[in-house]
Fold this sequence. Notes:
The chain is an alpha+beta fold. The protein has helices spanning 6-76, 85-98, 168-176, 219-229, 274-285, 333-386, 404-478, 486-514, 525-542, 562-583, 636-646; strands spanning 103-108, 113-118, 124-129, 139-145, 151-159, 180-181, 185-186, 194-203, 209-218, 235-241, 246-249, 256-257, 264-265, 294-303, 306-315, 323-330, 521-524, 546-550, 557-560, 592-600, 603-610, 650-655, 661-668. Among the domains are: 230-331, 2-Layer Sandwich (Beta-Lactamase); 519-668, Histidine kinase-like ATPase, C-terminal domain (Heat Shock Protein 90), CATH 3.30.565. Strands 1, 2, 3, 4, 5, 6, 7, 8 and 9 form a 9-stranded antiparallel beta sheet that branches.
Amino acid sequence: MRGRGLRNRIVWATSLQLLLVSGAVGGLAYFSGQRGGFGLAEAYRQQDAITDLSEQLSGRLAAPQLINSLNVLAIQQGQLSLNDFDAMGQRFWSQMQLFPVGYINYGSVRGEFLGVERLDSGAFVINEDAFASPLGKGTMGVYAMGAKGQRGALLESITGMTDSHEEAWYVETVKAGQATWSSIYQWEDKPEVLAIAFNQPLYGPGRQLLGVIGVDFVLSQLNTWLEEVWKDRNGFALIVERNGMVVASSRPGLTSTGTGSTTKRVRLDQLPDPLVQATNRRLQELGGLAAPSSLASTQTVQYRGNTYLVGLHSWGQAEKLDWLLITALRSDQIVQASQRHALIALLLSLGAVATAVVVTIRVSDWLLAPLELLRRRCQSASEQVGQGDANLVFEAGLPKGSAREIEAVSQAFGALMERLTQALRQLAEAIERERLKDAQTVLVLEDKLKSSLQAAAVAHEINLPLSTLLLNSKLLLDQQETPLPTNLNEHLQAIASNADEVVTTIEKMRSLLRNVQTHHRRLNLANVARSALLYAGPSLKAAGITVQREGLEASLAVLGDAAQIQIAVVNLLRNALETLETAGPAAATPATIAVRLQSEGDAVVLSVADNGPGFQAPQTALAPLETSKANGSGLGLFVVQTTMENHRGSLAIGRSSLGGAEVRLIFPAAPALPIT
């Protein structure tokens, strides 16, 4: 079964993961944005409702201040008399036709009272307790009012009125000494009525208190108005004081408990409504009523499966009141649906991410399992190589369905192992050949050493009598006391000359013995060549030979014995010198010897050339004891060749560019030094 392509699998897996993650993120972002948009729309809807309610409430509470200002101005300008209760009642009735207030009243410093009241039915009555009243002071008369505000029939008389005003609207205003809102209080004649009044003290000359004029806001009527404003909205609206006492509610009956004289105000936490209680608990979690001045409408409470947006806003500062407006507005179904959709999107996103993780793990296993198996097989093969096993075996055994690229790597490694096996066999064969060659070389060296030792022994045996012969012949030639016969003198000179040549031959044989023992080290071949020229320089200069140097300033390293190489080069220089002295240059040019040093690939070549007659028989020039000179020993080039063999180099002879002989010493270049 052919495996799937690694590229296609990675592209497929990556694309699937990107699709899953991007789809999850996109869906989550969409539903979150939708939820946020709907939430924002709901917040705007609630804020719009709160703003509308606040503006209307401000309009209603601005009326008492305006009415008071008009009445005080009329009194100050003499248009309204504090003693004319009929005219005052007519004026109060007219103002109540224009402004949505529940009560306009006046109380004198003598305890008299006049007020026009708007009943819950919408009708108007006038309440009077005055000295000039037919009922007398101390009895409150309640009269109907006609269509034009005229006083009608007596509807009710309430006895037992106090001589002075003790209600909050009067007492607090006198104490403040300026226009102010009273606290919420109960009417003296109707204890079941809770009201708040905006009042202003009236002063005569010398700031003498004349009385208090004010406008009452009846809370039951405020409840009715709030219910009307909030009727098209699901939820509630509450106006409360900072201490939690309820002022008004869009749900009538929540502002007080009891009836008649037992009527009492209630706190927010005393309201029985479950939604109000849930809202109050939420507000307490957020710091209660005293801490915040406003609360974002994104706060929610759950009640009977519905979500309500909760708002808390300060209200009444402009009207010099410190009230709080609490609202709970039910969220639309579409918003609740968006919340459910957002939750579903979140779950789907988590599922998509989990799927992407699973895909990643599966793809990783699919990639890493065959790679790990291949690694173990390669490690096993490496151990076989380390053990020197020539029969290397590599079988990856990859699982089915592995990537084609991994299979290709496995096949390539298998082919590499086969080639490595072949290379190991070839290397073993080459090592065996080299071993045989080295053995043969050792045998040759042993033969050379044996010959050299034999030559040294012979030289030693010959050197003893020969030295005696040479010494005695020279002593006879050097003595001056008795002249020798001429023929005897010639014979002694011949004996001394031949003995001297034999000594020279013996020294060359000893040098051949020294060339067998080598001590190789890294050296600069140019330094060796310059040393040889320095050694042979005086002889060359005395013979008038021109020496050409080329490449001797370079740094070309070889591994060798400097002494042996120098002896070989000196032998070449002496051979060239003797040839030029004996035969002379080949042409009518000065006698010249050229020494060149150069690099040729992996070899370093040192050549010595002259412009003499050259080699007469190149094919036999390297044989031991072969010479073309009348007095040559035939060991010079043989010593040089032995030196090159000891240095794993080679010797080449031929004709030089100068016209004479050229000998090339070819050395293997030394390996480069490691970089540290």
